[in-house]
Amino acid sequence: MWLIREDFASVVAFVGGCNQATAGTLLTALQPWLVRHAGCLDNHVWWSIVAHLTRTHRSQELPRHGAHLGARTVETLFDLLDEFLELRDERDSLNRIFAAHEQWRRLREQNGCSATDAPTCPTIPWPRTTSRIKPSSPSRNQPSGKPGKLT
Questions:
Q1: E strand or H helix that includes residue 56
Q2: pLDDT tens digits, residue range 51-82?
């Protein structure tokens, strides 16, 4: 891939253009799938969740402006896109992603924790790619680790 600038904003624009070129199908279900990693942020766009995940898991001091988020955020974006697109290639992946997201939303609303990632809020198993499931995982839809942890 060749870009004039390899900053986060340019890569997001490129990925967004690729999504537009596929009539919006490339990134279908990415945002609800990313919510699983963040454990919250259901009202954010996908690139905002990626920036949040980078700030949460790699560094607490990223600049505010999207164009200057740096190589770590771009690396996080591509790691997450790789895993997401691998999952999307699997049978029935969209149904699994959307069903898990809807169940997560209903449980959080019932327990009064829609806006936060409170530790008392329920969690559900999220769809994982078959190739990324650790042998000790009991099922292919079980997450590895707690929500918010990049695996």
A1: helix 46-57
A2: 988 875 544 444 454 444 578 899 999 999 99
Residues in the chain: 151
Q: Pull the structure tokens for residue 30.
A: 């990415």
Q: Note whether 26 and 16 are within 8 A (CB).
A: no
Nearest CA-CA partner of 117 in 149, 142, 85: 149
Spatial CA neighbour of 7 closest among 74, 57, 75: 74
User: Where is pLDDT greater, at 110 or 66?
Assistant: 110
Cα distances from 116 to residues 37, 42, 54, 106, in angstroms, run 14, 10, 19, 14
Please say if the pLDDT value at position 22 is more than 60: yes
User: Which distant-in-sequence residues (6+ apart) come within 8 Å of 14 by Cβ?
Assistant: 1, 3
CA distance linking residue 88 with residue 82, whole number of Å: 10
The pLDDT confidence band at residue 36, using thresholds 50, 70 and 90, is confident
Q: How far, CA to CA in Å, does 76 sit from each of 37, 51, 137?
A: 12, 8, 24
pLDDT on residue 43: 87
97 backbone dihedrals φ, ψ, rounded to 5°: -65, -50
